Amino acid sequence: MSSPVDSHATSSPSERLRFEFVTAQVGGETLLEGIDFEVRPGEVVGLIGRNGVGKTTLLRIASAALAPGAGRVLLGEVAVADMPRRSLARQIALVPQDLHVPFPFRVGELVLMGRAPHQPLVGLESEHDIELALAALERLGIDHLVDRDITTLSGGERQLVLFARALVQDPGVLLLDEPTAFLDLKHRVEVLREVRAFARCGRAALIVSHDLSLAARSCDRVVLLGEGGVVAEGAPESVLTPENLRLAFEIEVHSFAGPDNKLVVVPNLDESFENGE
Questions:
Q1: 65, 172, 180, 257: which one has the fewest Cβ atoms less than 10 Å from its Cβ?
Q2: How large is the average pLDDT for residues 57-78?
Q3: Strands across the sheet with 29-39, in order?
Q4: Can you say whether residue 250 is alpha, beta or left, with left for phi > 0 and alpha for psi between -120 and 50 degrees?
Q5: Could you name the CATH architecture of 17-235?
């Protein structure tokens, strides 16, 4: 399956994204220290862990929306914090969990905003920009929403629009914060297929997810965060073990191979209920 971004080259070569001994802080409180891993071109890396552990904060640091308490994030050999905003936007796209849009933009207008880093400072979108936006909407099955007011959409529809905007931004790196949280099963699969297609083009994706079984199927590697740092990093089957997940989530789980030989992770509800969780 091809992606709407498959048909043309990126505006710049994809570079590896590296977290180099990063400390993540919020409100003066340190959430994570010594975070050190990389996302290489051609792969999808999952970032998983319990609520409040610092996953979203790491994505914000990677997009230079937030400064690290210590350490740095590199795109290639350049710190993202040192990159001009416009240049950074041509190379990294962030898909947030949701976005408050204060004005009633139409869906097509909002998706076209993804082309802004590639346009002249003063000028209108080109026919090529419009084609890319329409192709992304069609790929995600939401082209019928092109003229809808963004404020009238459901949470899942807004999430798909934000993903489409990131695709037409044509970055080398995608940062995705729970991109399937509000989606039905069909659209979850479609979005993850698009992320895989994005990586097959030689680009990199870092995806935050609480759906461990889907993460195991869609990610080449996963980074499991616990209180203060990384619990484990590596292939999904080596990281998403009952022992590691007990450390990270403080619950008992079962992990086993599904019918397709991919990992399935399910909580032990009896054990959790007995412990009052």
A1: 257
A2: 96
A3: 29-39, 17-26, 70-75, 78-79
A4: left
A5: 3-Layer(aba) Sandwich (3.40)
Secondary structure of residue 208 in the 3-state scheme: strand
CA distance 222 to 240: 8
With a CB cutoff of 8 Å and minimum separation 6, the contacts of 9 are none
Domains of the chain, residue spans: 17-235
Return the exposure string of 152-168: e unless at least 16 CB atoms fall within 10 Å of the residue's CB, then b: ebeebbbbbbbbbbbbb
Whether residue 196 contacts residue 218, with contact meaning beta carbons closer than 8 Å, is answered with yes
Average model confidence (pLDDT) for the chain?
A: 89
| Sign of the alpha-carbon dihedral angle for 52, 56, 61, 66 | negative
78 Cβ contact partners less than 8 Å away, ≥ 6 residues apart: none
Band (216; pLDDT cuts 50, 70, 90): very high
